[in-house]
Amino acid sequence: MSSAIKIKTHRELLDSRQPGHGMPGELFGRQDVFETDVEVFFHKLWILVGVTADVPEPGDVHTVDIGKASIIIVRDDDENIRAYRNVCRHRGSRIMKKAGKATVGMLVCPYHQWTYDLDGSLRHSSHMGKDFDPGCHSLIPVHLKTVGAHVFVCLADEPPEDFSKLETVMAPRFAPYDLTRTKVAHELEIVENGNWKLVMENNRECYHCAGTHPELVNSFQAEDFGFCPDGQGEDALNAYNDYVKRNAATQEAWEKDGWICERFESVDESVHTNFRTQRLVIAGANESQTMDTQVACTKLLGNVSRRDLGDVHMWGHHSWTHVMSDHAVIAYVVPLAPDKTLVRTVWLVHEDAVEGVDYDLQKLTEVWNATTNQDAELVANAHSGTQDPAYRPGPFSQFTEAPLDEFSRWYDARLKQSGV
């Protein structure tokens, strides 16, 4: 007589995670978990969906699909960036039929040609009769905020109020770079064969970097990957102490000149808007994440006049940003399936920079092009392993992977608040 195999609930899986260890494999592979993740982490929280340079001119549109939802980002005739649900107010047809960029005069539904101004108002709808009120059928707006070049939206009726903390912390850090005066020099979209949480776990630690990212490690100091003093010899301990002193001296000099360096974290279980930031010293010339650590673009961002400003990081629950004196790299993930995640990476340079004159595209992009492709392979391999019946979550390194345990606790808390 066979006995039925009991399938654990989502909550039972979450509760089974041992503190300081990875998540159970079912949390990466199950369809029901994936659908809940999309609803909680991408439909209820603030999410990054693009950059201001995606819609540089009035009439420019950038359409983003998130699960069953689709969003139109548009710059209107008054230069304002707006967001709407990509749903016609007539019979629900998609107005923009596919994700990506376009330029339009007005937003026209391809089904019955209902036509909307860039401010969302309905301007044309034929044969609807004299009692029809077009003012009641404008496009459905989406909550939108811009921070630097980042375009954030929230699909919830009532968005989390603690996003204001991110605005307050990040606005002065981004201000000198004037990121709204940038253009997209390059963009890369990769579908990684892994769960979105594994993509983010991979991004939140550099335990793996020394052995897998030869291009990226050029701009890091070896100790940036984490350091466990246990069992280290005197030379290694002295080198680490020198590293700490060197970083402290560089940051002290930056702060004396008015550059914000302080590490700031809002990552615990109580917050909805999960982010952290700091200014990191870049190895070598301390200028840019390039193979020679020197700027790739000689026309610096904003009103910046010096090159050696390190790297201003911002990590979110599904995104990461690096801002240097000469360019910015902004990336975010969109979950497609339990084992499929879209990763979009954008390289921004000064809006007046000229390719071949002010910057060399290969030098600008080679580090993160290589790193992103390498990460895709790492994530696919990790996802495959977590679906093996033999998989048992192992312990995180407290010296190199503490952010992963923080992320796991935050993930659990947000689901618990949502009733999972």
Automatic annotation (TrEMBL):
One of its GO terms (molecular function) is monooxygenase activity. Its cofactor is Fe cation. It comes from the Bacteria. The keyword Mitochondrion does not apply. Its EC number is 1.14.13.239. Transmembrane segments: none annotated. InterPro entries: Rieske_2Fe-2S, Rieske_2Fe-2S_sf, Ring_hydroxy_dOase_asu_C_dom, Rng_hydr_dOase-A. The keyword Acetylation does not apply. Keywords: 2Fe-2S, Iron, Iron-sulfur, Metal-binding, Monooxygenase, Oxidoreductase. Residues 48-153 form the Rieske domain. Pfam families: Rieske (PF00355), Ring_hydroxyl_A (PF00848). Belongs to the bacterial ring-hydroxylating dioxygenase alpha subunit family. This is (Fe-S)-binding protein. The lineage of its organism: Bacteria, Pseudomonadati, Pseudomonadota, Betaproteobacteria, Burkholderiales.
